[in-house]
Every structure is written in C-alpha cells, then in structure tokens.
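Protein data sheet
==================
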Amino acid sequence: MLEKHQQAPLFSSKNQFNETVSLSDYIGKKNVVLYFYPKDDTPGCTIEANQFTQLAGEFAKADTVVIGVSKDSCASHVDFINKYDLKVDLLADVDGELCESYGVWQEREKNGVKSMAILRSTFIIDKQGVLVEAAYGVTPDGHAQDVLEKVKSL
C-alpha cells in the first residue's frame, strides 16, 4: 500500500474518449484526485461519481482535477458519464496495471467466496507529484466533500 509523502506512481491510461491521460500532464500545473472504484453504474460508484460531479466547480477553483479509475472499458465509461451527466474523467484500466501500481487490486471475501476486486480508494497528489493522501477502503457517501476539504488545505 502507498503512503503519504512518497512520490505517486506515474501512470498513463485511456480516458472515456480513448485519449491518453498521464500523471505527468498535471505535474507542475494541477493537484490530482485519483479515485478508484469497482464498477461503472453500480450503487456506491454512482453515489461517489455524482458527488464528485456536484463538487467539480469547487475542485476546479482549488486547482485540482478529479479522475476516476476502474477496470471498465472506455465505452462503459461513456455510457456511465452520459447516463448521469458526470463531470469527471474516467480512466479505463482494463489491464489492471494502474490498480496494481496503487495497491487497490486486492482480495476480498463476499458471502464466503474470495475474489479479486478494486478496493475503493482515493489518492490526493500535489503539483509536485507527491501523495498528500492515500485512503484505502473509503465509503462513497460524503467522500467527495471530505476530499475537497483536504484539497482546499493544500
């Protein structure tokens, strides 16, 4: 698992428009909120995405870009964004490389069955590419507001 004050792992991944987005695009320019979620258009993930969307203007004022990550495809992300009019970029980590590098691809047990899944997690990365927050196992409701308060203190 990653910890605060270390360099954030660099990444490049396709967004919903099939455009490559890289952490290096933002270093020296903007803070980055990188949030990982299990699956498009599921209850918790929809709450989280909608709340980040509701606060998109506040994040922009705080010189921060919000980027969601799941293993869903670009096409799935487009459908999710269109259905809820989301205002965040969503990265398609279909090969799981980004999830692995941030330590969010973990074993879980549900109804006695073990499987691998994305642990809902959020990372705040400052303009120098350093992790100022590494939160694993977050609760969707109210999380975007908590993250915004932390970003405002940067």
Summary: The beta strands are 12-15, 20-22, 31-36, 64-70, 89-92, 105-110, 113-118, 121-125, 131-136.
